[in-house]
């Protein structure tokens, strides 16, 4: 049975009165959803509270879920909207790619795992990136998280946020430029890493 069919069976069971079935859905998706909410809020406690609220709201509105989308897409949208309403580990190592156009976010070169300082360096990099995200306006932070971290398409972001695709693109461009300026030291550091890797034998 596919995950989609399995989700539908669990939702049907929950509607029939088996509330434990919804607990299976929570367990299945909460860890996948948490990083997104954390990046949107910048606060672990708030992200956990908001995640609980999102699943509670989904449970209360389960009769409105008709299966037009995947359950995860539906709960994702609920959680993101809660995070943006002001209610307010699989993390990638990131770098801002400096080029003549925009500053896109993409996987960085990993520090050698044999380096004992590597975990601290990654933690510091993550903190700097999260601080820069926190400094963005909420609507700009949302499109960056949804596009660069979660890999959503422009059309998906536009539909979830109920804004035109052009607005998504313009917000993303401005957010990338602001992140590039705020994370200038990381941009320069990654440029040096790439340069040194090209010259290494």
Break the fold down into its secondary structure elements and pairings.
Layout: H1 3-15, H2 20-41, H3 44-60, H4 71-84, E1 94-97, E2 104-107, H5 118-135, H6 138-149, H7 154-161, H8 165-182, H9 184-199
Antiparallel strand pairs: 1-2
Helix pairs in contact: 1-2, 2-3, 2-4, 3-4, 6-8, 7-8
Annotation keywords:
201 residues, mainly alpha, Rna Polymerase Sigma Factor, Chain: A, 2 domains, two-stranded antiparallel sheet, 9 helices, 4% strand
Word description of this protein:
- The protein is mostly helical.
- It has 2 domains: 3-84, RNA polymerase sigma factor, region 2, helix turn helix motif (Rna Polymerase Sigma Factor, Chain: A); 94-199, Arc Repressor Mutant, subunit A (Orthogonal Bundle).
- 69% of the residues lie in helices and 4% in strands.
- It contains 9 helices and 2 strands, in the order ααααββααααα.
- It has helices at 3-15, 20-41, 44-60, 71-84, 118-135, 138-149, 154-161, 165-182, 184-199, and strands at 94-97, 104-107.
- A two-stranded antiparallel ribbon has the order 1-2.
- β1 (94-97) and β2 form a beta hairpin.
- α1 crosses α2 (20-41) and α2 crosses α4 (71-84).
- It is elongated and about 60 Å long.
- It starts with a helix and ends with a helix.
- This is RNA polymerase sigma factor, sigma-70 family.
- It comes from Singulisphaera acidiphila (strain ATCC BAA-1392 / DSM 18658 / VKM B-2454 / MOB10).
- It holds the Pfam family Sigma70_r4_2.
């Amino acid at each position: 049975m596919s995950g989609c069919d399995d989700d539908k069976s669990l939702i049907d069971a929950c509607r029939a009165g088996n509330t434990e079935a919804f607990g299976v859905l929570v367990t299945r998706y909460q860890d996948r959803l948490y990083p997104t909410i954390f990046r949107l809020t910048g606060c672990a406690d708030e992200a956990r509270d908001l995640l609980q609220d999102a699943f509670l709201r989904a449970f209360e509105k389960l009769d409105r879920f008709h299966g037009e989308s995947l359950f995860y897409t539906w709960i994702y949208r609920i959680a993101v909207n809660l995070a943006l309403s002001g209610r307010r580990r699989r993390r990638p190592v990131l770098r801002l790619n400096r080029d003549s156009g925009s500053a896109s976010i993409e996987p960085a070169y990993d520090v050698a795992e044999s380096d004992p300082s590597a975990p601290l360096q990654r933690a510091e990099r993550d903190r700097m990136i999260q601080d820069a995200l926190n400094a963005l306006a909420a609507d700009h932070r949302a499109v960056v998280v949804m596009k660069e971290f979660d890999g959503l398409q422009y059309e998906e972001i536009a539909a979830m946020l109920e804004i035109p695709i052009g607005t998504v693109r313009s917000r993303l461009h401005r957010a990338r430029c602001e992140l590039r300026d705020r994370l200038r030291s990381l941009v320069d550091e990654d440029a040096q890493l790439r340069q040194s890797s090209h010259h290494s034998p």
